[in-house]
Structures are given as structure tokens and as C-alpha cells.
Design a protein that fits this description.
D-Amino Acid Oxidase, Chain A, domain 2; 3 domains; 454 residues; six-stranded mixed sheet; 17 helices; binds flavin-adenine dinucleotide; FAD/NAD(P)-binding domain
């Protein structure tokens, strides 16, 4: 725990009554919460940032790649604890024992600012980011859980915590508690997500105890370059709707699976088992050979998209980040970090404006929702709103038939025997066309998914 956190924590234990001292209380020192706290503190609001973990990020489970276009505008990332920049993105279809992959590695990504994509450990990064909010003037308390909201009529006027005499009044509350938003749900500010709109994720951090430069050699990297590998198909997560991932950190890799909670229940497919199956795939296992697990974690990811975003502004409160369902998780993109920071920033900015006008009502805070609508956050969620449902409809085709068909086509096209190549090419083409339902099926599919690229 840093000196700043320790000091503040002790202060709170000794003097828990903060009533009237703070303009705003932020629930959760994740990316969204710290972005909001930082933004408000920089605008001279007295901000209390409350985190249930022993330090910010201590309880955070994450793939993951931090996307930095907004955070880079808020803080200087020069000293931030970043692991590697992403130099290659790879998408693989896995059947039981085949892989068909596409790799993207533009030269531009090897140059600053590296497409604003870096692997991080949230335990380190969130603590650093919260310290930036503290340096801007926010007060951080850790090991404190917000258990409910204080109300006067419709108005939210503060929070209850698990500390003795732990009620804290403040004109503004920012709910930044992440996907498992018990406070918001308990206060009826948002509905509990249905199983279809939630993914379960299991992740391990693996280290390679033997040999030098194992990560660089295995993933073909130099210096601080890293990779993000994404896998789908039944070889990745069995019959579930979802996929697997591998990200390279400095000296370790993060390996995980994320798939619909509904499937975990219906197919009796527990996360740990699914992750082990993914790790043992013949195209994944060699990347992880001789690795030792140093950390295991599991968490949920909201993936209801634009339709499940709750009302964001209430009298005296706003909801930000994962708590507001602001995650784009569609198989092509898994982006929540950028949305968390963007939403925290707009929430903080709007609260500071409302405070200057002496307003706490939802009408005044609505400007936050409007700012998000004008930003990439809502635009991206809306753009891909159709994708989840369409993939669900084509699930068997995409996750089972296609990975096998493409692998068969590849094997056929490059088959080495004494037949003329035209025969192989013809059979390869037929393997794909037949699997996709003929030319008509292929045309329909192209039409259905054109918006992914157009
Ligand atoms: C396995 C996995 C992989 C992912 N990979 C990626 C990726 O590669 N790239 C990407 O952009 N996104 C990824 N995401 C999504 C991303 O992690 C989230 O979108 C992002 O962390 C949301 O930030 P947040 O601040 O809203 O919530 P969180 O990061 O969840 O932070 C919430 C904070 O609130 C605290 N808290 C909760 N309840 C209380 C309470 N009652 N009182 C006090 N404190 C409380 C928590 O301890 C936590 O610190 C991934 C998610 C998962 C689960």
C-alpha cells in the first residue's frame, strides 16, 4: 500500500465522520472512478474516492489491454506502469485440432503512441491512476465497502459504508463499482443483468521459470512489443458463445476465456474446466509450454450493449463504466477500459459544471448522458448492437462449421500429392461454399456481416 493510501486509511479509521466535507463521493477506484475523481478534483471539488479493495485494482480481473486515447489526455503516461504495447493482433478460428488465423501487425503500431494499446496489470495500473487523482486533490480510502445509498426523497445525498458510523453525505455520488454493481442494483438505479447479457471470464497469469527471453522468442517480439491473440470456435470454448485470449505482459502471459454465463449454466461448463481445455488445444499449448500459473481469477463482463445501458443520471448521482454496462464485447472488440475512462471523465466534468450552478438534479446531470451519446462510447455500442444477436443466430455455423471448413479448405488447397492443383483448389472452394450454404448462403452471410467492416 502506498504512503498516501495508508495515511488516508488511518485517518478514516480514526475519524469516520466526513459529513459536509465532500462535494462528491465516488464508489470504486477502478478506471472509471479514478477518472471521475481526477476530473472533479482538478476542477476544485472536494472528492472522496472509496475502494473496497486493499488498494485500487487489488480486486480487479482483467485480460487485458488498456486502451489509452482518453487517459493520455488526462494524465502523463510517461511513468505509468505499462507492460507491453500491442504490436500484433491475431484472430484464430479453432476447431478441435485445427487453427486458421489472420494476423495484423502494422508498422505504425510499433511507433509511439502504439495505437494506444498496452497490456497492464490492473493491480499496479489502477493504484497508479488513483494516485494521480489523489495528487490532484482527491481523498482515497481503501478497505471500505459502500453498502448502500442515502436518500432524501428522490434525491441521493450520500453513501452508507461498512465502517462504524460509516454514513457519508455529499451532494453528488458517482457509481463506479464495476460490473457487479450491487449498490446501483440495490438502490433500483439499474436492473440486474439477465444471464444472456453477461459473460463469465476466467484468467490465469503464467510465468516461464526456465530460459531467457521466452516471451520474445515464442511470440516473435523485440523490446517492449507484445501481442494480443484472440481465439474463437469450439476449440476455444467448446459449445459456449465466446472465445479465448492470450496477452503478453513484461515477463508473463495472461491467458483466459470469456463466454456467456447462460452457456456456463446450461452446458454445465465451468470456467476453470473451459480454460484448461483452451490451454490444452494443440495450437495453444506450445505457446504456454513449461509455464507456471501464478494467479487465477474469474469475473463477469456485461455485454448487453447499448440496449442494457441504464438511466445514467439521477438526482444526486450518475453511473459510469462497467456499472453502466459500457463495454463493447463482440468477438472482434473487447473494449471497456477506454469507455470507463471516457465516461468517468464526462461524469466528472458535468458534475463540476452542475456544482458551479448549484444544481444536483437529474436534469442538470443529463448532460453527462448527452456527452456520452456524442462520444465514441454510445456510438460504438450502437454500431455493434446487432452483432451479438446475429452471431447467436449463426452460432453453429460460425463456431463449429466454419473453423472446420476453413481448416479443411486450407489442408486441401495446399495438399501435397501428385494430383493437379486445380483439383485441390476446386475441393477447397467446395469445402467452404458448401459449409456456408452455397453461393447464396455466402452472399447472405456477407450481407449480414458487412457492417463489421464498412
Ligand atoms: C477477463 C476480462 C478481460 C477483459 N479484457 C479487457 C481488455 O483487454 N480491454 C479492455 O478495454 N477491457 C477489458 N475488460 C473490461 C474492463 O476490464 C472493464 O470494462 C473495466 O475494468 C471497467 O472499469 P470500471 O472502472 O468501470 O470497473 P472496475 O474496473 O470493475 O472497477 C470497479 C472498482 O470498484 C470497486 N468496488 C466495487 N464495489 C464497491 C463498493 N461497493 N464499494 C467500494 N468499492 C467498490 C472494485 O473493487 C473496483 O476497484 C475485461 C474484463 C474482464 C472481466
Amino acid at each position: 500500500m502506498s504512503a498516501i493510501l495508508e495515511r488516508v486509511d488511518e485517518e478514516v479509521l480514526e475519524a469516520p465522520n466526513y459529513d459536509g466535507e465532500f462535494d462528491a463521493v465516488v464508489v470504486g477506484a477502478g478506471l472509471a472512478g479514478s477518472a471521475a475523481a481526477l476530473t472533479m478534483a482538478e476542477r476544485d471539488l472536494e472528492v472522496l474516492l472509496i475502494e473496497r479493495g486493499s488498494s485500487p485494482g487489488a480486486k480487479n480481473v482483467f485480460g487485458g489491454v488498456l486502451y489509452t486515447p482518453t487517459i493520455r489526455e488526462l494524465v502523463d503516461l510517461e511513468d505509468a506502469p505499462l507492460e507491453r504495447y500491442i504490436a500484433e493482433k491475431r484472430f484464430s478460428m479453432l476447431s478441435h485440432d485445427d487453427e486458421t488465423a489472420i494476423s495484423i501487425s502494422p508498422g505504425e503500431w510499433r511507433r509511439e503512441p502504439h495505437n494506444d494499446s498496452y497490456t497492464v496489470f490492473r493491480g499496479e495500473f489502477d493504484e497508479w491512476f488513483a494516485e494521480q487523482a489523489v495528487e490532484a486533490g482527491a481523498t482515497l480510502v481503501t478497505e471500505t465497502t459502500v453498502t448502500g445509498l442515502l436518500r432524501e426523497g428522490r434525491e441521493i445525498v450520500g453513501v452508507e459504508t461498512d465502517r462504524p458510523d460509516g454514513e457519508i453525505e455529499a451532494p453528488y455520488v458517482v457509481l463506479a463499482e464495476g460490473a457487479n454493481s450491487l449498490v446501483g442494483e440495490g438502490a433500483n438505479l439499474k436492473a440486474t443483468e439477465s444471464r444472456e447479457n453477461v459473460a463469465v471470464a476466467a484468467k490465469e497469469v503464467l510465468e516461464f521459470p526456465h530460459g531467457e527471453n521466452v516471451i520474445e522468442n515464442r511470440f516473435r517480439l523485440f523490446g517492449d512489443a507484445g501481442v494480443s491473440y484472440h481465439y474463437f470456435g469450439e476449440g476455444a470454448v467448446g459449445e459456449a458463445f465466446g472465445g479465448g485470449f492470450i496477452y503478453t505482459n513484461g515477463d508473463t502471459v495472461s491467458v483466459g476465456v470469456a463466454y456467456r454465463l447462460e452457456d456456463a449454466a446450461v452446458n454445465e461448463q465451468p470456467p476453470e474446466e473451459t480454460l484448461n481445455l483452451f490451454k490444452s488445444h494443440p495450437r495453444v499449448a506450445p505457446l504456454l509450454r513449461d509455464a507456471r500459473t501464478v494467479e487465477y481469477s474469474a469475473k463477469t463482463i456485461p455485454e448487453g450493449g447499448a440496449e442494457s445501458v441504464p438511466d445514467l443520471a439521477h438526482d444526486g448521482a450518475v453511473i459510469v463504466g462497467d456499472a453502466a454496462g459500457l463495454v463493447l464485447n463482440n468477438g472482434v472488440h473487447l473494449e471497456g477500459t477506454n469507455m470507463a475512462v471516457e465516461s468517468g471523465y464526462h461524469a466528472g466534468r458535468v458534475i463540476a459544471d452542475a456544482n458551479a450552478r448549484g444544481r444536483t438534479d437529474a436534469d442538470a446531470l443529463e448532460a453527462y448522458g448527452r456527452a456520452l451519446e456524442e462520444s465514441f462510447v454510445v456510438k460504438n455500442l450502437e454500431r455493434y448492437a446487432w452483432l451479438q444477436e446475429t452471431v447467436e443466430e449463426d452460432r453453429e455455423l460460425l463456431f463449429e462449421t466454419m473453423p472446420t471448413a476453413f481448416a479443411d479448405a486450407g489442408a486441401e488447397y495446399f495438399r501435397m500429392d501428385r494430383e493437379p492443383k486445380a483439383e485441390h483448389a476446386n475441393r477447397a472452394k467446395r469445402a467452404v461454399i458448401d459449409a456456408l450454404g452455397g453461393w447464396r448462403g455466402l452472399a447472405k452471410l456477407a450481407l449480414r456481416y458487412r457492417k463489421v467492416v464498412t
